[in-house]
Amino acid sequence: MEDFSRLHVKDYKYWNVSVYSNQSYLGRCVIWCIREDAIDLPDATKEEQEELFVILKDLREACKNIFAPDWFNYSFLGNGTRHLHAHFVPRYMKEKEFEGVTFTDKLWGTNFKTDNEFVTSEEILQKVRLKLKESLEG
């Protein structure tokens, strides 16, 4: 699993939030369950479940205010990493410009898929991270 510590946004009691290193979907984040033995979503404790929904709402509002996406996808796959985590994926009907970079949601209206050809510079990653951090802590 990728080390997301340099992209850390916020710690909660049961989860932490980091920006995903491939921003082909502007504002995409990973929500990681802190409990080491957490594997599958149905095994989340009641407290973890409740906090997860708070985080999803927090992220949704932050992204609406910062990037103005048109929709959101939430994914709990676990295919590549067997640990309880979620992908928070803002979706955009039209191209979105942020800090001089154009982001295009090529699959708008269908399931998201990471565009592995899209490279996000460290500068843009940190700007996305700081915007989200400021909004979530504000």
Structure commentary:
The protein has helices spanning 46-66, 122-137, and strands at residues 8-11, 15-19, 29-33, 71-75, 85-91, 96-98, 101-103. It is an alpha+beta fold and 138 residues long. It has one domain (5-137): HIT-like (HIT family, subunit A). The strands form two sheets. A five-stranded antiparallel beta sheet has the order 1-2-3-5-4. A two-stranded antiparallel ribbon has the order 6-7. Helix 1 packs across helix 2 (122-137). The chain is globular and about 40 Å long. The model has no long low-confidence stretch (mean pLDDT 95).
User: Outline, from the CA principal axes?
Assistant: globular
CATH superfamily: HIT-like
CATH topology: HIT family, subunit A
Instruction: Tell me the series of helices and strands, N- to C-terminal.
Output: EEEHEEEEH
Q: Look at the structure and give the mean pLDDT.
A: 95
Structural class: alpha+beta
Assembly context of the chains: single chain
User: In whole angstroms, how far apart are the ends?
Assistant: 30 Å
Give the helices and strands, then pairings.
Blueprint: E1 8-11, E2 15-19, E3 29-33, H1 46-66, E4 71-75, E5 85-91, E6 96-98, E7 101-103, H2 122-137
Antiparallel strand pairs: 1-2, 2-3, 3-5, 4-5, 6-7
Helix pairs in contact: 1-2
State the gist of this model.
With 138 residues, the protein is an alpha+beta fold. 27% of the residues lie in helices and 23% in strands. The protein has 2 helices and 7 strands; from the N terminus they run βββαββββα.
